[in-house]
Amino acid sequence: MNKAATLTAWASLLLPISSTYATSVYGPELEGFAYPYAVERFAFSSQQQPLSMAYMDVSPKGEANGRIAVLLHGKNFCAATWESSIEVLSNAGYRVIAPDQIGFCRSSKPRGYQFSFGQLADNTHALLNSLDIDKATIIGHSMGGMLAARFALNHPDQVEQLVLVNPIGLEDWQQAGVPYATIDQMYQGQLNISYQDMKNYQLKFYYNGEWKPEYDRWVDMAYGMYAGPGKELVAWNQAQTADMLFTQPVVHDFPNIQAPTLLLIGGKDRTAPGANRAPEPVAKRLGQYPELGRKTAEAIPNATLLEFPELGHSPQVEAPEVFHEALLRGLQAL
Prior knowledge:
It is built from 13 helices and 8 strands. The chain has a single domain (3-332), classed as Rossmann fold (3-Layer(aba) Sandwich).
């Protein structure tokens, strides 16, 4: 694949490529990376195969408030990325469940699996049922926001409150004019991932051009699986899930969401899968989060919008104190 094609394929996955960089090496299920809390396993069968879903189940450290928060990670993130949010919520009296979705991080990496937001939502629903959880606050970030929205649509009785943190999927990229890239093209792009451009991408889109040493841990986490022996399978699942998020928009279903919804939007975010392969006039219109956040708040019947104008795609990592103060305030408003 030539350089231009590789850049196009990888940009569509929200991560760039470039030179090599020494980093930690992890197994295909993120073996070797330390999670902040004990990791448990939910074994189940899906699409005629046995699978294992990793998750953290953290009890309240403060006085229990009787509520449960379920944290859904983004595409280039893991349950471990919620580390500071888990601590804050637990201290505030919440029981916190943070799973790794099938195909990601500590969970199974099936070679043959039809990835869909409906399937991942059902897997999460089955996990909560196994833990006897009837109601929960569902909090999703980035791709996890798309999944959280689909979960709220498919399993409304299980959702006490919905929280979307800089979710992608607030627009339909394909409808907007972004060309389709095949899974094979995505996969070839994934195989060329490097540490340094992954870091450069996060610097630009996640942290608004200002890097802090504590961010290195999350680049190391994300890239370590590509440096390890399971690179090809990790890359294949990432290509499959890239196709999922591009071809399965949730934006058109926002008016059908019943749960009270809190939108937490970093205004500097410009994330738009596939924008680099779109014509320039199309690309310029995509990922305008201040506008997208307001349109989404209007589309979801019972939505409240809290904006962070100076923050980017990951406000919970970039400015945890500011973010968590707003999150707790929004949760208490229920």
